[in-house]
Every structure is written in C-alpha cells, then in structure tokens.
C-alpha cells in the first residue's frame, strides 16, 4: 500500500486490489447465506462503485435474481456483458431475467 502524505489517497497494488474485490464477493456471499440481502447488495455495490468488475456485477445480478428483482438483474447483467460479452453464465441469467420480466402480470400474481 502506498499512502501519499499530502492527501487522503491510498493506492493499492493490483494484486491487493483484486484480493479486496474478491473479498467483497466472499463477504457478500456470506451475508446472503445469512439472509442479509440488503447488506450483501450494499457490500457488492461499494466494490463495484470503486472498480466495475464483471464477476462482481454477475454476482450482484444473481443476488437480485434470487430476490425476484428482474429489472436490477437485467441492469447488472447488461453492465457485466459490456465487460465480457461472451460470459456464458451472465448470458444465461440475462435470458432468464428477460423471460421473467416479460411474463404477463396474471402469471406473476399466481406465483405469489
């Protein structure tokens, strides 16, 4: 870590930055396992805001999908696909979310 004394800027070497982003994914997964969905989404959102990452975007999309939030799932899938247009898992999740978002309202109500 490099700390510049004249400012509040801290620079992490690339390896540490990648570890920090990966750790955010682990933490958010643990939070989802504990049914703390809002906290998991917030943890991922912080990491994504710092450095957009395809894996983290896909993970957050999957969390949104598990919560039934198709619009947020689609948004994060689209962002992830901008970074890796051929990512098979994200393409599959995107298609699933599109299908769910296009279901007629009466079918959605019968599921609930």
UniProtKB/TrEMBL annotation:
<protein>
    <submittedName>
        <fullName>Uncharacterized protein</fullName>
    </submittedName>
</protein>
<dbReference type="GO" id="GO:0010105">
    <property type="term" value="P:negative regulation of ethylene-activated signaling pathway"/>
</dbReference>
<dbReference type="InterPro" id="IPR044631">
    <property type="entry name" value="ETO1-like"/>
</dbReference>
<dbReference type="InterPro" id="IPR011990">
    <property type="entry name" value="TPR-like_helical_dom_sf"/>
</dbReference>
């Amino acid at each position: 870590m490099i700390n510049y004394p004249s400012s509040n800027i801290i620079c992490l070497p690339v390896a540490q930055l990648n570890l920090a982003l990966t750790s955010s994914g682990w933490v958010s997964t643990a939070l989802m396992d504990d049914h703390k969905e809002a906290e998991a989404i917030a943890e991922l959102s912080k990491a994504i805001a710092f450095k957009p990452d395809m894996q983290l975007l896909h993970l957050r999309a999957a969390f949104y999908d598990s919560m039934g939030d198709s619009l947020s799932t689609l948004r994060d899938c689209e962002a992830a696909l901008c970074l890796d247009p051929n990512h098979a898992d994200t393409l599959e999740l995107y298609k699933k979310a599109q299908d769910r978002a296009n279901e007629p309202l009466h079918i959605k109500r019968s599921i609930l």
